[in-house]
Amino acid sequence: MAWILLLFAGLFEIVWAFLMKASEGFTKPWPTVGTIAFMIVSFGLLSMSMKSLPLGTAYAIWTGIGAVGAFVVGVAVLGEALTPMRVGGVLLIVSGLVVLKLSSSH
Hints:
The chain is mainly alpha-helical.
């Protein structure tokens, strides 16, 4: 169950990161409110998952899901550059997440 909570925490992180970009420095009210709301849910789910998962593993996977997801949203939705170096960086993040998951005893 902790892994499912962590997955959803990471997915909510992607949403709040996108909404933060859309808020244009917190100058647009609705994206700002959405950012804060999704942050609260994301942090809450992360906190719940940390009741049984190791701190380092949970936090790294949460930020990794957010980083990779934000990268994908940036490329797919916002038209950001898809360069070999950026893809390589994301692949390194994903490989690190896999190693952390495989090394976890939970």
